[in-house]
Design brief:
The complex is a heterodimer of chains A (106) and B (369). Chain A is an alpha+beta fold and 106 residues long. Chain A has four helices and six strands. In chain A, strand 3 and strand 4 form a beta hairpin. The mean pLDDT of chain A is 87. The chains are: A alpha+beta (106), B alpha+beta (369). The interface between A and B is medium-sized, with 18 and 20 residues.
Chain lengths: 106, 369
C-alpha cells in the first residue's frame, strides 16, 4: 500500500494543468512562533500573527498544492470531516490571499 | 555577560546544541528565578531558544511561563521580520546603484547556520560594502531619510579607517554599514578583499542575498563574540558554536586566513570561550588548536583593548600600530586628535574631554593573554 505522502505527491503530479494550486507568495517573510506563525507579506505595514490552524495551513503551502490535497492532509491530521475542513481552508486561503501572503497559481 | 552565577541563561543559549553539558532545572523555576531568567534572555536576544526549549519540554516550565516565553519570542520575531524587509529594500537600492554588499550577522546567521531562523533573533541590519563604496552607500541611505548616529571625525575617515557607519532609519531601526568587521587593530588587519570572495547565499523574500563564505563567516562570528562586548555575550558565542559545529568548515583555510589577518588569537579566544561557556564535550580540530594557542606580543597588545567596556579611545590608539605606512598613521591620528566640531555632537564630549579620555586610554593599556 502506497504511503499517504506518496499518494499526495502522485495526485499532485497527475493533477491536470487546469486545476489551481495554492502557494505562498515568494516575497512574504515569515517565522514560526510557539503554536503559530508570523507572516509579513510585501506591501503590508506590519507582520500578521497566524494561529495554530492557520499556521498548519501555511506549512502545507510550503510547496504549491491543490485545494483538495491541502484539505485532505489537514482533515487527516485533525481527524475531522473533510467538508468542514474545506470550509475553513477556503476562508483562511481567502484571508491569506487578501493579505498578499498566498496566491492561486495557474 | 556570559551569565550570572547560577543562571540558566547559558543552558538556554546552548539549547539544541549537540554536545553541550549544562544543567537544566529539574522542575519549573520559581517566579523570581524565572523573572530574572526572562530579563537576561531578552537582553541577550535568546528568546527564540527559550521559547523552543520550554515549548518542546526540554526546559521545564509552567503553562504561564511557556506563554510568557512565546510572547517574548513573537515580539522578537516581529522585529526580525521588519528588519528583514528593511534589509531587502536596502539590498535592492544597493544593487540598483551597482554597490556590492554582503549581509552580516543576524539575518545572515539566522538563515545560513541555524536550522530554523526563528531561533536567532537580531536587532539591526548589518551590511558590508567595499571601502570605496562606503560613502556612496552612506549618502544613499541618508538621502532615503536615515540619520547618521555619529558624525565622521574627518572627511574620508569612514572610507579609510572606519569600522562602520551607524544610521538610524526613519522608523527607528538601525542599519550598520560596515567597511570592516570590528573597531580597533583587528579591524584594520582584516583583508577586506577576502570578505567579498566566495560568498554563501541565502534566500529571503524570494531573493538570493550574498553573505560571507563559511570560513570568513566563522571568523566574523569569532570577532563579534570576543572583540565586541566584554565579557562575551552568549548569542555571539552560540553563533561561533553554530558556525563551527554545523557547517563543513575548512579548518586549514580558517587558520591561514586568520594568520594573514593577524587574528589567530581572536579565533583561539572565541573558541575557548565558546567551549567553556557551553561546556562542550565535542573535540574538533579547532578546539584542540585553540586550547594550545599562545598569542604573540602584537596579538596580546591588540587583545588588551577589548577586555574593558567602551574604550573607544584605547581601541583607536591601538589601531595606529595596525595601519601601514607613516602617512596612513599620521592621517589616522590627525583625524582622531583634531576631529570636526560636529563629531562631538551627541558624544557628550568636547575637545578637552576627548583628549583627556584619549590620554587615559593610552596609559591604561596593558597586555592580556
Amino acid at each position: 500500500m502506497m504511503n499517504p505522502g506518496l499518494q499526495h505527491a502522485e495526485r499532485e503530479r497527475r493533477a491536470p494543468a487546469t486545476v489551481a494550486r495554492w502557494g505562498r507568495t515568494a516575497e512574504t517573510l515569515w517565522r514560526r512562533t510557539v503554536g503559530g506563525a508570523l507572516v509579513f507579506p510585501p506591501g503590508a505595514t506590519e507582520p500578521v500573527a497566524l494561529n495554530e490552524t492557520a499556521a498548519d495551513l501555511w506549512e502545507q503551502l510550503e510547496a504549491p498544492a491543490t485545494l483538495d490535497t491541502v484539505v485532505e492532509r489537514l482533515a487527516e491530521r485533525y481527524g475531522a470531516d473533510a467538508d468542514v475542513v474545506a470550509r475553513d481552508v477556503h476562508a483562511l486561503l481567502a484571508e491569506l490571499e487578501r493579505l498578499g501572503a498566498a496566491e492561486e497559481l495557474r | 555577560m556570559t551569565g550570572r552565577p547560577g543562571s540558566f541563561a547559558p543552558a538556554v543559549a546552548a539549547h539544541r546544541l549537540a554536545g553541550a553539558r549544562l544543567d537544566i532545572p529539574p522542575k519549573p523555576l520559581d517566579d523570581d528565578a524565572w523573572a530574572d531568567l526572562v530579563v537576561e534572555v531578552r537582553l541577550q536576544r535568546l528568546t527564540g531558544l527559550l521559547a523552543d526549549a520550554v515549548s518542546s519540554g526540554a526546559f521545564p516550565a509552567t503553562d504561564e511561563q511557556v506563554a510568557e516565553a512565546a510572547a517574548a519570542h513573537e515580539a522578537a520575531m516581529d522585529i526580525a521580520l521588519r528588519l528583514e524587509r528593511k534589509l531587502l529594500d536596502t539590498a535592492s537600492a544597493f544593487e540598483d546603484a551597482g554597490i556590492e554588499y554582503r549581509v552580516l550577522k543576524g539575518p545572515a546567521f539566522a538563515h545560513t547556520i541555524y536550522d530554523d531562523p526563528a531561533l536567532r533573533a537580531f536587532g539591526d541590519v548589518d551590511l558590508l560594502v567595499p571601502g570605496g563604496d562606503v560613502e556612496p552607500a552612506r549618502d544613499m541611505l541618508v538621502a532615503a531619510g536615515c540619520e547618521r548616529r555619529y558624525p565622521e571625525p574627518r572627511p574620508g575617515f569612514d572610507r579609510r579607517f572606519g569600522k562602520s557607519v551607524t544610521l538610524e532609519a526613519p522608523d527607528g531601526f538601525e542599519i550598520d554599514l560596515h567597511r570592516t568587521l570590528v573597531l580597533g587593530p583587528f579591524g584594520l588587519t582584516v583583508d577586506t578583499g577576502d570578505l567579498f570572495a566566495d560568498p554563501s547565499w541565502f534566500t529571503l523574500g524570494g531573493r538570493r542575498l550574498p553573505a560571507l563564505g563559511p570560513e570568513t563567516r566563522f571568523l566574523h562570528a569569532c570577532y563579534h563574540a570576543v572583540l565586541g562586548e566584554w565579557p562575551p555575550r552568549m548569542l555571539p558565542l552560540r553563533d561561533v558554536a553554530q558556525a563551527l559545529l554545523t557547517a563543513d568548515l575548512d579548518t586549514e583555510s580558517v587558520l591561514s586566513t586568520a594568520a594573514s589577518w593577524r587574528a589567530r588569537a581572536v579565533v583561539a579566544r572565541a573558541v575557548r570561550a565558546t567551549w567553556q561557556t557551553f561546556a562542550l564535550a565535542d573535540v574538533v580540530p579547532l578546539s584542540v588548536w585553540a586550547a594550545r594557542y599562545e598569542p604573540d606580543a602584537w596579538e596580546r597588545r591588540a587583545l588588551s583593548v577589548h577586555t574593558r567596556r567602551k574604550r573607544y579611545g584605547a581601541k583607536a590608539l591601538a589601531s595606529v600600530r595596525a595601519i601601514p605606512g607613516v602617512r596612513g598613521k599620521a592621517a589616522f591620528v590627525h583625524s582622531l586628535l583634531t576631529p570636526n566640531r560636529a563629531f562631538f555632537a551627541g558624544r557628550d564630549a568636547g575637545y578637552l574631554r576627548w583628549w583627556r579620555k584619549g590620554v587615559r586610554s593610552a596609559v591604561r593599556q596593558e597586555p592580556v593573554r
